[in-house]
Design a protein that fits this description.
The chain is α/β, with parallel strands linked by helices and about 200 residues long. The protein has 5 helices and 6 strands. The protein is about 35% helix and about 20% strand.
């Protein structure tokens, strides 16, 4: 009977060990901390879909979170991250180059790295030239994002993560987690009609 008791004990502890291993694995998964997010009253998912799906979509970038990387090189690398992190639809082709033939010029995404603590998202839409990002941080990467329709703030988010470079999985994962909060399928305030800004 002793061998059976020993076997029972081994069977009982097996799931516990498995759960502990899963917990350890979960702790190594890159995560992002989203400290502020939300849609504003003008926001409409249908507008974003109409302006983004199958189209060039303008992204204005300010700041570089990684020391030694030129702004232009970082901007292009970030566009690749955004394209791979977004959902399959709307199929936006994020670009830093304005004026593409398929682009709806009223809409843009404004992405500020190393933002000032008191940076208002409305400022990102209305007075981007006044935004002064900080130098690359020695700690976590912080980003402030605004989805703008001309000067109107449509949605916003602030997030941070620990990432060593633009190819770090944690940096990519931060944007995977940001897309659903930046572009929720419904506006809690009002679901407006599609607006044609072509």
């Amino acid at each position: 009977m002793k061998p059976w008791r020993h076997r029972d004990r081994a069977l009982a502890t097996g799931p516990i060990i498995g759960a502990l291993l899963l917990g350890i694995a979960a702790c190594t998964t890159p995560i992002a901390i989203i400290t502020s997010e939300g849609a504003e009253s003008p926001y409409s998912y249908q507008e974003y879909q109409a302006a983004a799906d199958g189209r060039d979509f303008l992204v204005e970038v300010r700041g570089v979170p990684f020391a030694g990387m030129p702004q232009e090189a970082f901007d292009q690398a970030l566009m690749g991250v955004l394209r791979s992190a977004r959902p399959s639809r709307p199929a936006a082709n994020f670009t830093t180059h304005p004026g593409g033939p398929s682009m709806v010029p009223a809409y843009r995404l404004v992405v500020v790295f190393n933002p000032a603590r008191n940076l208002a998202h409305e400022t990102q839409c209305r007075a981007l030239e006044s935004v002064r990002p900080g130098p690359p941080p020695s700690g976590p990467v912080r980003v402030s994002i605004a989805f703008c329709r001309k000067d109107d703030l449509m949605s916003k988010a602030v997030a941070w993560t620990t990432a060593a470079g633009v190819d770090d999985p944690a940096f990519h994962q931060m944007f995977v987690e940001l897309f659903p909060v930046m572009f929720p399928p419904r506006n809690p305030f009002i679901e407006g009609p599609i607006v044609n800004w072509d």
